[in-house]
Amino acid sequence: MFKNAYIGNKSAFFQANWYKIVKNLQPEFTRGQNNLYS
Predict the structure, then answer these.
(1) Between the CA of residue 20 and those of 1, 13, 23, 31, 37, what are the distances in Å?
(2) What's the pLDDT tens digit per position in 1-38?
(3) Which domain of life is it from (predicted)?
(4) What is the dihedral of CA 20, 26, 29, 34, to 10 degrees?
(5) Which residues 6+ apart lie within 8 Å of 14 measured at CB?
């Protein structure tokens, strides 16, 4: 849905940043979940 809003290099830039952010947050998120459910 939002893909149409960002076209070309802008889209690729945001996609790359999003991937980086998710990758960085993943360990924190899983650790938080483990703390939550353990």
Answers:
(1) 21, 11, 5, 18, 26
(2) 455 655 566 777 778 888 888 888 888 777 777 777 65
(3) Bacteria
(4) -170
(5) 6
